[in-house]
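The record is given unchanged here:
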Amino acid sequence: MNPPQTKSWRILRRCLVGLGIFVTLIGLFYTEELWRGKRAWEKCKHALEAQGVDFNWADYIPAPVPEKDNVFGVPEMKEWFPGRHGGTELSKKLMYPGFIGPGKPTVLIIAELMIGLPGMPAPEGSIVLRWDDPAAPAAAAKAFTNALGPTVITPAGPGLMARRPEEIRPARIFLQCQSAPTEKDMQRFLSDPILGILVGPLYRLRLGSDGKGSYRADLFAPASAPDYLAWCETLDREFGIIHQALQRPVLRMEGDYADPVEMPLPNYVTIRSISQMLGARAQCHLMLGQPDEALRDVTLLNDSRRLMSEMKPMMLVTSMVEVAVTGLYINIIADGMRLQAWREPQLAALEGQLKSINLLQPVKQSFETQAVYSSRNLETATTAQIEKVFTSFSSHKINSWTALECSIFAELIPRGWVFQNIVTSVDLDTKIAIGLDAASQIVYPDKINARTRKSDAVSSHWSPNTILASRIAPRFGVVCQTTALNQTVVNQGLVACALERYHLAHGEYPDTLNALIPEFLDRIPHDVVGGQPPHYHRAADGTFLLYSIGWNGRDNGGVRGKSNADGDWVWPN
C-alpha cells in the first residue's frame, strides 16, 4: 500500500501535467489565432492596396505650410478652432442672451377676435369673417401672420421676427356666427397653421376668452431682428479676423499627426456656433430687406466650410460637419427666396458659390481615411485602448460590473481577433464608397443599402471577427443618405436661383428649365440619385414645383415622404 505522501504527490503531479497541457493549449490557441488574424489582415491589405488604397498613415499627414499662408497661422484662429471636445471662449460669446436670458418671456398679443351675429355692424378697422365660410380659417391665419410680420426659425432653433414687440399691432377680426362658439370650437377654427414658419411649443398660438364672448390670441415673442443685429455688432472684430484668415490659401493645424488618436481636429462646437450665428444674422438682414448684408454673411458662412473641406486628413466626422453646415447654408438661401429678399446681383453671386460645392468627394475620401485610421489604431491598440472601445461604444449602460467585464475581456482577447476585426472594419469602410461616384455626383442607393445591411448584420450578430468592428462602424446608410440629400438641395438651390433671376427679368417663371440656358444657367445639374434631370412644373398660381427623385429611386410626383428615405426630395427641403 502506497504511503499517503506518495499518493498526494502523484495527484499533484497529474494536476501539474494537466495544467501544463492546458496552458500549452491556450498558448497554441492564441498563437494560431494570431497567425490566422495577421494572415487575413495582410491578405486584405494587399488586395486593397492593389485597388489603390494607401495604408501608409504618413501619406495622409499634411505637409508643413508657411505661417503667413496658413489660415491657422493667425493667432486667434489657433486659439478658437483647435480642440476636439467642448466649446471655446468664442463659442460661449456667440450665445445670444436674447435667446437664453433669464426671466419670463414677453407675451405678444397678435389678434383680437370679436364675436357677433350676421348683419351686426363690425367694429372700425376690423376684418369681417363668417364662421360658415370655408375660407375663413385661412383668412384669419393670414391676418395673424401679417400682424406679426416676417419671421424665421434660426439655425439654433429660437425664432426671430423683423419687428420689435412694441411695433406689433394686433389684427382685429369680427367673426360673424349664428351662435357663440365655445373655446374648443375656436381652437378647431384656428387649427390651420397660423404662423407657418414659427414652430414648437414656445411659439404655439394661445387663445384666451375675456368672458364676454371675445378672444385674444397671443404667443411668446420671438427675439427681434434689430436687437439681434445690434448685439452682433459686438462681435465684428472676431468675424473680421475670421474673414481675413480665410483669405489665406492653405490651412494646417499644429499638432502631432503621427499618432491618429492625438492628431489635431477642428473644434466642431465653435464651427457650429459660428455657422448658426452667421445664418441667423443673414436671416435678420433678409427680413429687414438688406440683401447685400445678407449675402456678406452667407458668403462668409460658405467660406467657413473650408475649415472642414480642406482639412487633412479628411475624417468622417469632419466631412459630416461640412455636410451639416452646407445644409444650414442652403436653408438660409431658401429663406431669402421665401421672403422675396434676394435680387439679381445676390442671386448671381449665390449661383457661383453653389456651383463649386461637391459634398460627395470629401465624404468618399473620409471612408478611405477612416479605414486607414481604424486599422492603424487597432493594430497598435493597447489593452487599455481596447477596453475603451468596449466601454465607449457599448450599447448597454456602463456600471462597475460591466466595466469589470470589459476590462477582463480586453485583457483576454486574442490579438488575432483584433486583426480579424481590422479586416471587417476596413471592408465596411472601403466598400461603402462603391455607392458614391464623386466625379459624376451620382449616388447609388441600392449599393449603399446592400452594404448597410451587411454593416447591420455585423452589429447584430456576435462573432470574434466583429466584436470590435461592430462598435466602431459608422451608420453608413445615414451618412450617405444625408450627403445625397444635401447635395441634391445644393443642386436644387442652384436651379432655384436661376429661376428667381428669370422671374425678376420676365415677371414669371419659365415653362421648362431649358429656358434658363444659357442666360441664367450654364447647364441643368442632374439628380444625385439616378442621374436624371430634376423635375420641374410651373403651377397655375404662378409658383413652381421643383423636386428630385429621392432615396427610394421612384418618382412620387413631387410628394414628400414621412422620412428622407421615402418620397421625393422637394425644394425647399
Summary: The radius of gyration is 31 Å. The mean pLDDT is 87.
